[in-house]
Amino acid sequence: MLICDDEEELAHELGEYFTSAGWEVEVCIAAAAAIDRLQRFPAPQVLITDLRIGPVDGREVVAAARALPKDGPPPMIVIITGHVMNSAVAADFDSDTLCVKPIDPEELSAAIESFLRLPPT
């Protein structure tokens, strides 16, 4: 799992939560670092990224994840944000799930587990 959020405390709290749940987690607080990590093998199974990461739009991180070689299943992509209109949906950001801050780690974990149990399309 790769978590990218420029709110360092939130990123590390989510990292600790998912590590304690058995995930192997990497945390980045800059979009460039997340994009660099995505381009190295192996790709993470799940990407959690903020929509606004400093001067970079989180969509750039999502685009890097979507551009990964198709030699395995694509990562699940979760957008987390505090800056989204009520009418927004995950598909607006080419993500699989959209979570509005404040994040409930248990709800996020349940959404990830549910998504990962779906049969491949």
TrEMBL record:
Short name of any one Pfam family annotated for the protein: Response_reg
SUPFAM superfamilies per the UniProt record, alphabetical: CheY-like
Keywords of this entry: Phosphoprotein, Two-component regulatory system
Entry's Gene Ontology BP terms: phosphorelay signal transduction system
Ranges for domain Response regulatory: 1-116
4-aspartylphosphate modified-residue sites: D50
InterPro entries the UniProt entry points to: Bact_response_regulator, CheY-like_superfamily, Sig_transdc_resp-reg_receiver
Protein name: Response regulatory domain-containing protein
Annotated organism of origin: Ancylobacter dichloromethanicus
